[in-house]
Write a structure and sequence with these properties.
The protein is of the alpha/beta class. The protein contains 31 helices and twelve strands. The strands form two sheets. The chain has an eight-stranded mixed beta sheet, with helices on both faces. A four-stranded antiparallel beta sheet has the order 1-2-3-4. Strand 5, helix 17 and strand 6 form a beta-alpha-beta unit. The protein is elongated. The N terminus is likely disordered.
């Protein structure tokens, strides 16, 4: 306690001998009541004398403290979601489980502590200890995850075949990890609201505290997503958030204590005050609609602003900012309102009409975004973030701002007549609101969006908001409000029934990168035909057929991930053929990412025993049926075992071993995919390889600076010391082949495997008809790779270098970065004969030399560049 807050003891209050026989707990409570009454009398005397409330600065400081607490809480939420994603995976069910555990802890803490605030004594001290506890828990969670990991793997291996049992176990594990800190987080609002209401007697205090916490959340998104994680990494961000919580706790411990406006009531307490059921329903509906619309809008806006981590942070930042603005308006408005129910009626109707208008706007949004992008011409990450934030705010400002007013208005309307019940009421309302948020997030993400789509989900929420507004209007009554509410609801109903459908082809165009040639073709109605479109649990998937040439492309969240074009076919076939032609054994194969199904089909053309494939998005597997003309319909092969799960999760939980792992996920900058390009993932995969096993990794060269390429190559080589690099400038892609054992190509064995008829047919369709053509795709040997990556930074789960740096390269032209990278690879190239066990048959055969030159041309390499590599090797300074 601060010295200035200490009040001298009254000598007449010294306890008598008889009072000393009173039990210690009762004596302490009675002493506290006496002190409270004395402090209240002194405050009253000061006010009567015109001296004002002493230490009035303490309450604004507590508000600022709670704002910082909101920032720290949001930082923790983002970090914990990433950490638990590494354990549980990034599937919709896994993410929903983590969210339910996190928000369930908030609701539990709010209810448990809110109902007991009157019995907690020194509430600022309890609040301070909670903040310190949150900070310490944040530091402990990474250690707990490391201990839980092997236990979780054992549980998965035993019960993963039972969906219900395993889902419950995963929720229990997530809850066991997250409940301690989240319960403490949930307890902070009712506890602080109860204390401040007692010392100020202000009915609006809980609403303003909630607003301050939302403002802190906006600050947390900005700091965590754009500053802390890019600069400090996950561990540094964890320490920063924990330090902020501990600093908040220590600061509150040092603050002087304020006295209540009125002493605690004497005598028996009356019946407990309860907020109306209608207000409770509004709090529940507010949580449900806010989170459900956030999930649906995020799925829509990712198609517009892209899938980078900056894009997701921008959407969340704009959404929370609009919620915070609505909350601030409602808190100010409530100070002048005798009854908040008319405002609740109006705000629900504004939300419904705003949602309807935003849904209508999405029909033209891709075209508007392209026009704005070309006018804005962003040349940096900051400019792109500003552009995207502007688009999101203009689209969602009205409905989200209106949604942000509901809970503060409910807190004002449910304020108890005396400050004594504030903590209990705030705790109950916040818990109910959080339960609604859990339901909204889980139902929207796991049921509504995948089953009926974002369009129908948003329209349904607009109807629900209008219905709640009508109920409030009729409860209030009056001459104009019910009629206006019915008119607004009717307008919403007509808009829902008569509104236009979204232009799915335009949404799938990927307008966040308007310079790509596919964007213009998708926006032009006559250039493409949409064969398939589905919003799956984790992504929006589409298949388009191009009018000219009839080729087909697979889009995931607006980005082409596969196609039947010759350049893409070369990559999809080679990523499987490279390891299958070189690996010592090829019995058991593991495939990361399904895509068009071509790589899986290629693997199954080889004499393998089993192929285990993992695809996180079920809609991708479903869409691959449109590529049956090139993928051999692999799902019909009995040797295939297909998991619709996160590949990292399967490798972590399963104890199976493989001879070959093939990894061809989406692009390294995509949020949720980037962790498949880290040293931690490669180490995990290496543990699942047999001692002589090989890992085949697809790696693009387009829209990636050479420094980023070198970082990813260094990351791969840090786990697999022996690396061969294959590639084709024609396809703009490379294939990295890594092993923990030396890799040497046996030419006779290569010819034998090449002679296998299904393999010959598979490679022939990408223009490679001889084993020499395959050798023409070879660029670098292990020594050349070691020289190239020397000093390059390693990409890890902690520093996330590629995820945060690569978005800067996206705006560059496809061919520009690819030319830079392949020029370096050609300059540092290793002659193919240097990795052969016996090169004499290759070097002594003019026919093989001619075939190699032919192969260089087929894959887009210049034979003259290769000849210069040979000349450089024969130079006197390079001859041993």
């Amino acid at each position: 306690m601060h010295p200035s807050a200490a009040i001298p003891l009254d000598p007449t209050s010294r306890p008598s001998i008889a009072s000393r026989r009173v039990p210690a707990g009762a004596r302490t409570a009675r002493d506290r009541e006496r002190r409270d009454r004395r402090r209240a009398r002194r405050v009253g005397e000061d006010r009567e004398a015109g001296r004002g409330e002493p230490l009035a600065w303490v309450v604004p400081v507590l508000g600022a403290v709670f704002l910082l607490s909101g920032a720290a809480g949001l930082v923790h939420e983002v970090v914990w979601a990433r950490l638990l994603g590494h354990l549980f995976g990034a599937t919709s069910l896994a993410v929903s489980t983590v969210l339910a555990a996190f928000m369930g802890g908030l609701a539990l803490g709010s209810h448990l502590v809110g109902s007991r605030t009157a019995r907690l004594g020194d509430r600022p001290r309890v609040y301070a200890l909670l903040e310190i506890g949150i900070g310490l828990s944040a530091l402990v969670i990474p250690l707990v995850l490391a201990l839980v990991q092997p236990v979780y793997g054992a549980l998965w291996r035993r019960v993963h075949f039972s969906f219900a049992v395993f889902s419950i176990l995963r929720l229990l594990v997530a809850g066991g990890i997250l409940l301690p800190p989240t319960v403490m987080m949930g307890a902070t609002l009712p506890l602080l609201a109860d204390y401040v209401a007692a010392v100020r007697g202000a009915r609006l205090t809980p609403a303003w505290l909630y607003t301050a916490n939302l403002a802190g959340a906006v600050l947390g998104v900005a700091a965590g997503g754009f500053v802390l994680m890019p600069m400090l990494g996950l561990r540094g961000t964890i320490v920063s958030g924990a330090a902020l919580n501990v600093a908040i706790g220590l600061a509150v411990l040092c603050l002087p204590r304020l006295t209540p406006v009125a002493p605690p009531a004497e005598g028996p307490a009356g019946p407990a005050y309860r907020p109306s059921r209608l207000l409770l329903a509004a709090a529940l509906g507010s949580g449900f609609m806010s989170l459900a619309t956030q999930v649906a809008w995020t799925r829509v806006l990712v198609l517009i602003v892209g899938s980078t981590t900056y894009a997701f942070s921008t959407v969340l930042l704009a959404y929370l900012a609009a919620l915070g603005a609505g909350s601030a308006w409602a808190s100010r408005r409530g100070a002048r309102a005798a009854d908040v129910r008319p405002d609740l009626a109006v705000m629900h109707l504004v939300m419904a009409l705003g949602l309807l208008a935003a849904v209508y706007a999405v029909t033209r949004l891709p075209f508007w975004y392209v026009a704005l992008f070309r006018a804005w011409q962003p040349s940096s990450i900051g400019a792109t973030v500003a552009l995207n934030a502007t688009v999101v705010l203009v689209l969602l400002a009205v409905p989200v701002l209106a949604a942000g007013t509901v809970l503060p208005l409910v807190l004002i309307g449910a304020a108890p007549p005396t400050a004594r019940d504030t903590g209990r009421i705030v705790g109950r309302l916040y818990a109910v609101n959080t339960v609604g948020a859990i339901a909204g997030a889980v139902l929207a993400g796991f049921v509504l969006v995948p089953r009926v789509g974002s369009h129908a989900t948003l329209l349904g929420i607009a109807v629900l908001a209008a219905a709640i507004g009508v109920v409030f209007a009729f409860v209030v009554g009056g001459r104009w409000l019910p009629a206006a509410a019915l008119a607004g609801a009717a307008a919403v109903g007509v808009g829902v029934v008569a509104g236009p459908a979204w232009q799915e082809r335009a949404l799938d165009a990927g307008v966040s990168e308007p310079h790509l040639p596919t964007v213009e073709g998708m926006l032009a109605g006559s250039a493409t035909q949409l064969l398939y479109h589905r919003e799956g649990p984790t992504a929006t998937v589409a298949v388009a057929r191009w009018t000219q040439g009839g080729r087909r492309s697979l889009f995931v969240n607006g980005r082409v991930n596969a196609s039947d074009r010759r350049d893409d076919m070369m990559t999809q076939v080679l990523v499987a053929e490279v390891p299958l032609l070189i690996a010592p054994r090829v019995d058991d194969v593991f495939l990361v990412g399904w895509g068009s199904g071509v790589s899986a089909g290629t693997a199954l053309q080889a004499p393998v025993r089993h192929v285990t494939a993992v695809e996180i998005e079920p809609a991708v597997v479903e869409a691959s049926a449109f590529f049956a003309h090139v993928n051999h319909d692999p799902r019909r092969d009995p040797r295939l075992r297909l998991y619709e799960d996160d590949a990292r999760h399967i490798l972590l939980a399963s104890d199976d071993r493989y001879d070959v792992i093939i990894s061809e996920p989406s692009h390294p900058w995509v949020s949720g995919v980037s962790n498949l390009f880290t040293q931690d993932f490669f180490r995990l995969a290496a543990r699942r390889l047999r001692p002589d096993g090989v890992f085949s990794q697809w790696l693009q060269t387009y829209q990636m600076s050479f420094e980023t390429y070198r970082s990813l190559l260094a990351t791969f080589q840090s786990v697999f010391p022996e690396v061969l690099v294959f590639g084709s400038p024609f396809a703009l892609d490379c294939i990295l082949l890594g092993s923990r054992q030396p890799i040497r190509l046996d030419l006779a064995e290569l010819d034998r495997r090449w002679a296998y008829e299904p393999t010959r047919a598979e490679t022939a369709r990408i223009g490679l008809t001889r084993s020499e053509h395959f050798l023409a795709t070879f660029y670098l040997g292990p020594d050349a790779v070691r020289r190239l990556v020397r000093g390059a930074p390693i990409n890890t789960d902690d520093n996330m270098i590629v995820e945060f740096n690569m978005p800067r390269d996206i705006a560059r032209r496809l061919a520009e970065t690819s030319r830079e990278t392949f020029a370096v690879l050609e300059r540092e190239a290793t002659p193919a004969d240097e990795v052969l066990v016996d090169a004499s048959p290759f070097l002594e055969s003019p026919e093989r030399a001619e075939a190699l030159v032919d192969g260089l041309t087929r894959v887009g390499r210049n034979p003259e560049d290769y000849a210069r590599v040979l000349e450089r090797r024969q130079a006197p300074e390079n001859v041993k």
